[in-house]
Structures are given as structure tokens and as C-alpha cells.
Amino acid sequence: xxxxxxxxxxxxxxxxxxxxxxxxxxxxxxxxxxxxxxxxxxxxxxxxxxxxxxxxxxxxxxxxxxxxxxxxxxxxxxxxxxxxxxxxxxxxxxxxxxxxxxxxxxxxxxxxxxxxxxxxxxxxxxxxxxxxxxxxxxxxxxxxxxxxxxxxxxxxxxxxxxxxxxxxxxxxxxxxxxxxxxxxxxxxxxxxxxxxxxxxxxxxxxxxxxxxxxxxxxxxxxxxxxxxxxxxxxxxxxxxxxxxxxxxxxxxxxxxxxxxxxxxxxxxxxxxxxxxxxxxxxxxxxxxxxxxxxxxxxxxxxxxxxxxxxxxxxxxxxxxxxxxxxxxxxxxxxxxxxxxxxxxxxxxxxxxxxxxxxxxxxxxxxxxxxxxxxxxxxxxxxxxxxxxxxxxxxxxxxxxxxxxxxxxxxxxxxxxxxxxxxxxxxxxxxxxxxxxxxxxxxxxxxxxxxxxxxxxxxxxxxxxxxxxxxxxxxxxxxxxxxxxxxxxxxxxxxxxxxxxxxxxxxxxxxxxxxxxxxxxxxxxxxxxxxxxxxxxxxxxxxxxxxxxxxxxxxxxxxxxxxxxxxx
Length: 567
Description:
The chain has helices at residues 9-74, 77-85, 88-93, 95-106, 149-155, 273-323, 337-377, 383-397, 401-418, 427-445, 469-481, 518-523, 527-540; strands at residues 113-119, 125-127, 164-166, 172-173, 176-187, 193-202, 216-223, 228-231, 238-240, 254-258, 264-270, 424-426, 449-455, 462-465, 488-497, 500-507, 545-551, 555-563, 565-566. It has 567 residues and is α+β, with helices and mostly antiparallel strands. Among the domains are: 75-207, PAS domain (Beta-Lactamase, 2-Layer Sandwich); 210-271, no CATH class; 422-566, Heat Shock Protein 90, CATH 3.30.565. Strands 1, 2, 3, 4, 5 and 6 form a six-stranded antiparallel sheet that branches. A five-stranded antiparallel sheet has the order 9-8-7-11-10, with helices on one face. Strand 1 (113-119) and strand 2 form a beta hairpin. Helix 8 (383-397) runs antiparallel to helix 9. The model has no long low-confidence stretch (mean pLDDT 78). It is found in: Membrane.
């Protein structure tokens, strides 16, 4: 039953894509929000704790590294001797050895940290960089200077021989921001403090390696003993807890990890508190509609996709059947306007192609057969054969050997023309006919005409269309050599190249005025060459070449390349 109305496919596709793509996309996004507000919250917390623990371990390693460097310098005999003597003159004498030892301990870290040595009186002052003025005890010995690590160390007399770490002395020294300082005292043999070894660690040594996971809005280095802090993400923010209000609040978005062996800890704030809050507000509202929407979209997707794909598969199947040569195929109407138009157009196209192919095959068969017979009939003079036999008999009776041999050779040529049972000849047969023709001409022109034939024995049984070589040789004698004064020479060369048979006939005649095209050959006196070209074209299509090269006054070469055919 034919439908009265065929709905446009565009309308169906629009509805289909809106339902199948837009609805699931919106619902899936909502579902993602819901999942994030639940499952991803725990995941984010775990990732944040892991990342911060990694940063704390890095900080611990850095602090321990510079603690060890400070210790190594504080136990140096050379440095202890200089600090104990507290004599600038003697210090200058040992300066080279001191610097070598300091740079050896710092081991190329001078772009990350600066090491300074100062005696308890301030008379001896040595640094790997410009000596910091805040450590010059001659001018900075104020006990109220809480930012000076030497002042802080002097206040803390409980652990004289332990390393001290401070983040309070945040300043720019030698063009770098100082993040923290490590101090180690030096002692005389009697146990008195003779000086201080201080290593100032720059922010650049730390900040580039902190928060590489980008999970935090800020990471704070906190000193719980002095209630001071500094941001490792924004080092210009530092000071007391008043600079970091969130440190006084308890929040699930804040994470803290202590740095073992110090009074320091790392505190970080999560990057997603606001997003998480908005997720929580929408998650429960969307969850139910999300599940229903997914089920509906799956069902509708199946219905629409099957409805459209079934018709498309039927059309594709019919086209593949037509591709295999089934011209009787016919598409039926589907009820969709565009598909019906495609079916009608396809059916019309199939019928037209079928008619055109039948007509083309019939015309080509008739044309090829008619032209082949017409071309070969030009060389088919049956009536001469009996006459030649009579002449041959008379010549033999009267002892005319030249006439006798000539009639034999001419008879071979005529028999080849008369024999319509086959259109092929072997190379051996073709060369035999060409040589018969040349021998006849040699009787006429004598030693003036010379020729040479080059062909390997393994090519002799290869078949070609007959009357090819002899016709080219005849054209060379008639049109190339006829007007030439002096000796005539023709060379026939047969060879195989890359699976193709190559035939070349050259002469030293007068040559062409200009290289003729195939249309020129058809209209000129060179009908023999044109006949050869057309016969090869009908037989091989585009699988052959036919070339004429010529130099006026020097000669011509006719070259043919064609597929090889074994007998």
C-alpha cells in the first residue's frame, strides 16, 4: 500500500538528533555534577592530601639539605679558627681557603641560597654573595629586632648547638627574596660562642616545585612557634596570622601537613570550594530526571536509528547489487520524500545505463569488425594470385631466375593479404614477409638498397597483428627513400622491454617536413601508417604507443610498443 504523504527526512533527523544528542548531553552533564558532588569530593580530598604531603616531603628534604650544609660549615677547622681568632688581618690571609670550602659545601647552589659567616663581634664577615648588612653585628645588635635570626638565636639559649630555622626575616637580598634562614653557632674549645653560620634560602629554590598539581589556590608555610607565615605561591604575602585569616578558621577546604623535625607546617586551601558548593545545591534536583532522561533517550535512539538505517541499508544493498552488474535491480518507495526521490532517480539511471551499455557494445562490435575488414581488404587482391602463378611457371620454363624468385616472394605477400582466417602473425612470419618485399625492391634498385634485421630467436614466436612490419618497410621505401640520392638503408629492430614488444623501423631517407599527427596521416598519402595505427588502437585501446621521429634530410624512425602475445 502506497503512502499518501512522505515526510521530509530533514524533519525526522532534526527531531532525532535533538532527542538523541541534546537531551542525553544535558542530562549527562547534570549526572556528572551529581557524581562530582558525591564521589569526586572524596577523590579531590585524597588528591589534595597526597599533593600537600608530597610538597611537605620536598620542603623537609630542602630544609635537611641546608641544615647539613650549615653544619658542615660550622664544624670546619679553618672557619672555626678564623672566627675564634676574630682578626680581620688573619682572615684575609685564609680567605682563599675559606671561600673554596664554602663554595664546595654549597655545591653550585649559590643561585638558590647564600651562605654567610660572621664572628660574634662582627669583625669577621664572609659571604658567598654580598654580605647582608642585617648580619653585621657591629651595627645590628638590637635585641628587639625580631626578624633577625641572630637575635632570635641569642634569645633561645636552650639549644645552643642545634640548628635554628626562621621564616621571619623575609627580605630581598642580592636581588632574590629570602624564604627562610638556617643558623648554626660555632664554638671555641672552651665552649664559648665564636660566631654564626647562616644560610639564606631563596624563594626560587622552593616555589617552582610547590603546588605542581595546581589543586590549591594557595600554599602557606607556617611557623607555629613564632605565629608567622609566608605564601609559597605569592611570596610577597607574609607576616602574622592576620595576613591569612583562613588560618584561624576550621574549614574542610583547608589542609595541613607538618614538616618533620621543625616547628613548620604546610597549609593549603582547596581550589574548588565554590564549585563544590554549587554542585551540592543542584545534585539532588537533577539526579532523578537524569536517570529518566537516559532511559528515554536510549529507547528513542533505537527507534529512530532503526527506522532510518533500515531504509538506508536497503538502498546501499541495491547499489552494491547494481555495482556487481545486476541491471534488473529496482528500488521501492520508502515513505520518506527524499528517499523516494532518490529511488526514482536511481531506477531511471540504472535503466539508462543499461540501454547505453547495450547500444555502446553493439556499435563498438559492428564498428571494429567493419573497420578491420575494410583495412585488411585494401591488401587483399585475390585476382592477382592466379596470374602470379602463371608468370612463375613461364619464368621457370624460360630460365628467368630473377622473375621466378620475384613472383615467389610476391606470392607470399599476396597470400598473407588473402588469408582472412586469422588476423595475427608471428614475428618470424612478419619478418619473412618484410624481407620478401625488400628483396623484390632490391632486384629493382640493386646494391643501392641495403637493409638489416635485428631480432633475437626467443622473440620469433611472439604474435602481432599481421602486415605491420612489412607495411612500415614499404612506407619507408616508397616515401622515405624514393627521392633520396645515394645509398638507401633500412633497419628493422625487434626487442623486448619491460614485458612489452618494441618494433622499430628506421631509414636514412629524406624524412618528413614535420612530424605528422594521426589526423594528418589519415588525410595524406601515408595511409599504410594510419591503417596500422587504427588497427592497433582497435585491438589494444590505450595499451600501445605509436611514434614517428624524423629529421629532414637524415631519415625517419617509426616505433611501436605493444603487449607481447605468445603463440
